[in-house]
Amino acid sequence: MPDAAATIRDFLARHREAEERFLAELVRVPSDNPPGECAAHAEVAAKLLEGLGFCVERHPVPDDVVRANGMISCTNLVVRKRFGDGPVVALNAHGDVVPPGEGWTRDPYGAEIVDGWMYGRGVAVSKSDFATYAFALLALQAAADQGARLAGTVELHLTYDEEVGGEIGPRWLIEHGISKPDLALGAGFSYAVVTAHNGCLHLEVQVDGRSAHAAMPFTGVDALEAATHVLARLYAWRKTLAERKSDIEGIGSPQLTIGLIKGGINPNVVPDRVTFRLDRRMVPEEFSEAVEAELVQVIEEAAQAFPEAKVTIRRILLARPLVPLEGGRRLTELLCAHASAIMGEPVAAKGVPLYTDARHYAEAGIPIVLFGAGPHTIQEANAHRADERLPLADLCKATEVVALTLLDLLSAK
């Protein structure tokens, strides 16, 4: 019987250009979120996968649910390949992307290749791992066709709402019983195996006052003045977060950002309402309920200086931190071992200060780690900024890492 690992390597070497073409086709079709009109991209991806020989399940999310999550259309894709009785391993990547924005020197939907790097929105985050996972599964099938004895099932979960929270992507698939995996691998980069990441809390703070003519501002209640006081208190309190540090390598300290503010009527009118939204990043050691309670207390205490103003606080998003689950240890060890050998440098388990769809698997009790195609850092990939790019050598190597890891996980005893 041929050596299964050698079969995998040979298959991937022969299909390297096909994998790059597959990724380029995905990059050339916009799937910006917002606005979140992503069903068309899902259909393109489904047809490309079918062209590779996969049976693709299309799971459209009901329109009312999509609209409630701030999107226009969303179809999640599931591919299942059963090799025999054994664990179900899900591979999850998201096809929705942030809008390109300004400052590009390449066509954000061009998939142009320059000096071994492919450029385009989503090429690294995370349309790349549509390709990584699909071709890893094809290589695993090639090994099985040559006699490798495998036990278990591999599923591709290709979802389309990560950029707005993941509520109707992985979470929807799990809660509706469409998939019940035992273990999961999520999109990542090639030089770290991520086992933990930050959580995120978004709050909206609305400050209501009373409008008045600018000739007699004392007859009103200035919502902007009250909001400014609250903001100043939040910025002063933010400095204390540097004193709290995670014990997990790569995480660092909690963070606070006030990223959106609106209000006022006209320059000659005392503002009657100011609204701002904040982002509080939570390290894995923090409890989300305690974080929210502390933040609300800071805001409410600051607002007491303006008793005539009314302050309303609404939770917009709560994404709990990802923490390692015991059942993910072997997957982590296998990925680290194969990645260290293939990437040409030590690759270890660590945390990242982002938050991802991985939390939805973990909250359902499904161990998950992150690994995929990408350079050392999100800065090097220009993720979420102009000229996003991916080194195609890393795409090839990461696919081999995933395929060999799956081979070890599912090899029959």
Task: Summarize, please.
The chain has 413 residues and is of the alpha/beta class. The protein is built from 12 helices and 15 strands. Helices cover 34% and strands 23% of the residues.
Strand content: 15-25%
Query: Unreliable stretches, pLDDT < 50, 5 or more residues?
Result: none
Name the strands of the widest sheet in spatial order.
1-2-6-3-7-14
Assembly category: single chain
Question: What are the secondary-structure elements, in order, as H or E?
Answer: HHHEHEEEEHEHEEEHEEHEHEHEHEH
- Portion of residues within helices: 25-40%
Gap from first CA to last CA = 16 Å
Task: Provide structural commentary.
The protein has 12 helices and 15 strands. The protein is of the alpha/beta class and 413 residues long. The strands form 4 sheets. A 6-stranded mixed β-sheet has the order 1-2-6-3-7-14. A 4-stranded antiparallel β-sheet has the order 10-11-9-12, covered by helices on one side. α1 packs across α5, α7 packs across α8 and α9 packs across α12 (392-410).
Mind sketching the topology for me?
Blueprint: H1 4-14, H2 16-27, H3 39-51, E1 56-60, H4 63-68, E2 75-84, E3 88-94, E4 113-114, E5 117-119, H5 128-145, E6 152-159, H6 170-175, E7 183-186, E8 193-197, E9 199-208, H7 223-238, E10 255-263, E11 273-282, H8 288-303, E12 310-319, H9 329-343, E13 349-352, H10 358-363, E14 368-370, H11 378-381, E15 389-391, H12 392-410
Parallel strand pairs: 3-6, 3-7, 7-14, 8-13
Antiparallel strand pairs: 1-2, 2-6, 4-5, 5-15, 9-11, 9-12, 10-11
Helix pairs in contact: 1-5, 1-12, 2-5, 5-12, 7-8, 9-12
